[in-house]
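Honest question from a wet-lab person: if I give you the sequences of every part of a complex, can you actually get the arrangement of the whole thing, not just the pieces? Trying it with mine:
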Amino acid sequence: MTASSRSSVLFSAFVVCFCVLLLRLVYWQIISADRLGREASRQHFVELAVPASRGEIMDKGGNPLVVNQPAFLVYGEPRNIKDISAFSKVVSPVLSLNAEEVLNKLSQPNLVWVPLAHKVELSLVQTLRIQNIAGLGFEKEPKRFYPEASTAAHLLGFVGSDVNGVDQGYFGLEGYYDRQVRGIDGIMRLEKDAHGAPILIGQEERIPPQDGRTLVLHTDKAVQQIVERKLKEGIARYGAKEGSVVVMDPATGGIIAMASFPNYDPRSFSAFDKSLYKNPIVGSSYEPGSTFKAFIMAAAINEKLITPDTIMDESGPVQIGQYVIRTWNNEYHGKITMTQVLEHSSNVGMVFVAQKLGHEKLLAAMKRFGFGKPTNIDLEDESSPELRADKDWGEVDDYTASFGQGIAVTPIQMVRAVAALANGGRMMEPHVVKEIRAAKGKNIVVPAKISAQVVSPETARIVTEMMVAAVDNGEAKWAKPKGYRVAGKTGTAQIPVAGHYDASKTIASFVGFAPADKPRFVMLVTLRETSSSQWGSETAAPLFFTIARDLFTYWGIPPQ
Amino acid sequence: MKKIARVIGIVLPITAIILVVLQVVISNELATLGKRLGQLDTQVSYEADLNEALSTEVASASSLLVLRERAQKLGFVEPTATQIMSLTLEVPVALNRSDSLRPVSLE
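Yes, you can. This is the full assembly:
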């Protein structure tokens, strides 16, 4: 081999080596750059997620209804555990776990990180921490704490996990305001030494968490407690299957209290039937029965078609096509005024009013009072039954709707519509949250919102007087607190089952407001399938007045 | 001039040596403080957790459910009709709750 060819071979060898080196560098620096960068970062830095605190929920006086409790995810790292069997025996009793199950979990091959228990309380974590057990780790995982236990469960909702195991609010306020209250987690990235301890003069990056916003409600927890206690007693006394009460401030639309039974405990929501999660006050519909008469009466007065003194002849049942409409007790009073129609809760009298009003105006009035549309209350579970299509209204439907049969409403729609009569004809949008407080930054006050002027102030005043008369001279007058002017109306509606009404199943209700001249609250009480009596005047009305009496005392409202 | 240069020639190296030694000592000191920093971070986190736990205890102790229970144990009872007084002249004793939940039969 000549010197020239030897140098060519040597040169070629250098070129090949250079190319190999170049390719290797391309592989490291371009193809594997991300992976290697991450590995290097893992070796040099410790990265910790700093969980944001979920916003708290306070009542109108700033008393906590939902707060956060420190809790932890407890996990094991099998590679760092010397004796898995001994580890299981030490850890399991503290976490109330089965030692054998923990052993099996940790013994599975190729696992580097095994979650052992979620949402473990601080005291238990401290018990484990002081033992300094190798391979046992803790990660913050705060959980909700309810100082008032299951009070206002339907209103508050609960916090569960989404598909990725991240906390998420469901139902009620937790569901509706989930994005506001959940906050944004922070990150802490510190350069670490060989032992894993942070280096004081090393690189450091801290992105602080943004805590969730706190919700301040219109709800008063004392009123909520009164309502829940009385409702429970009422359900037991009258043998009802279900019951609901909602109390609203007619001037602002603020929800002062809202309770339904049966309910669930948000602390252990998974132990309850899922059907109990939905708030029936905003998510379930019912036929309102005679409580609906006040709106049709208001519509006719507003159109100046009748006055409280207009006389009609209630001499017997009314025949509408193939249907016969009777009074609730099949008693007839001859010539009576419109005020007496409400006092006697006369279905025949309401047919007279509906005939005066006519189909178009009756339908328009129902829509104006907000029936058939959601109220836009700030609760996740709201749904609204639709009014039947115009073409589907038969002649008899107008008349049955005038006394609240054949039409479905939600309790929140009902209480909002009555609140409009209590508020000079102005219908307010119902709201639970009064103020949203940011952890850092300005607070947002949720303003009261007028949905519509549904009737004139004069009509509202006239109908209020008629409702006061309905209470003072109606079937439930015996239960009314003496000395107070309460405007209200009883209702008893049969429950439709498979296209027919079941005579033995009724929803008894009472809706009203007080004091009638300057209403402090509007309240609706509904009791489903009561066994002591089917009539609202003997069940829902006395319960309404029992609660009202406590509210008068609590707010210091003297008799007029 | 030469004297000044000689002084500088001595002072500068000595200063440099002192600074190098100082840097080594301080770096060494700071490096060992990492563990302490880690402990302090853990302590801060623990105190924050403890603070939160105490807040929940306060919230729990001041809840209406607990207050009601304690009041009942101390012998407090709900007011009856005659125990509620109204200051209005027209109806001095206005709240009559004796038959509030009395069921009646239909006539």
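Two things worth pointing out. Chain B touches chain A at residues 27, 30-31, 33-35, 37-38, 41, 45, 49-50, 52-53, 55-56, 59-60, 62-65, 68, 79, 84, 86-88, 90-91, 94-97, 99-106 (CB under 8 Å). Residues 89-107 of chain B have pLDDT under 50 and may be disordered.
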